[in-house]
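HUMAN: Mind sharing a backbone?

ASSISTANT:
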Amino acid sequence: MSPPAKTDSLFRWIEEREREHLESSSSSWGRVLDSGTGRHSLTWLLHGNSSSFIKEVVAVTGEKPLANELTAEFAPTKTPHATPLTVHAGNWQNAAFLATEKPFDVIIADYLVGAIEGFAPYYQDQICGRLEKMLAPGGRIYLVGLQPLSESQAPVGASQADVEAGKLIQEVARTRDACLLLAGRRCYREYPIEWSHRQLEKVGLQVTNSVRLTNVYGRSAITRQLEVGRRHVSMFKDNVLADNMQLALDRVDKRLEEEFGSGELPKNEQRRIRFGFDYVIAAHKSIQS
């Protein structure tokens, strides 16, 4: 049995929107498409506070082994309401993928746009149209994303020290991405909230609400991003470049320690700053569609 869902703020916000829909229309959730699935979202959908309202979940991943694992881990016999679950492995770029599925009442696009780069490069501007076709008339879509760090800034009123720390976070992200690119890998590519808003409207969906939740970064979270880059240095084709990148990573890590303190400190004793945000955009399809 999976542990009870630890619903985070973004998912709670979606639950509140569906609760409002229930109060106004006497229906909510119904048949759900988790269009970029993982353990976190499935735990929420199948074990969370709203799981009793969900009739069926169809989930999508780009990885067949993960699809098999999730199918076993979240089988109806292991969830509180025995919710039917089907996990597909496939690529949204394939027009035939899920072509026989019936329309969905709710679609969750949980960091899907950012993840697409690894499976269907340059398809980001098509994904909203692809999902719109799978949404039932009157259906709702919730698009969850991370404001790119390159477009982020410290909140209004932040101290100069926090502003400088935010710039260091951006440098860590750029260094991580440089390592991935030099290793021949593709970077996770998020898009700004304004871009996502436009894409939803372009395909005929009506944006009804959105929320921005400020992120809080401490040494541990930032160091994890640096380590993502470090793990890819061994894949560089140029050994001299790899050696120099390791030295560069060490220098950035030293600056992180000066700015945020030792990574050995307990999490609650590390310096933390507010920087950037995650977002959810709620949109719906006209009932006349």
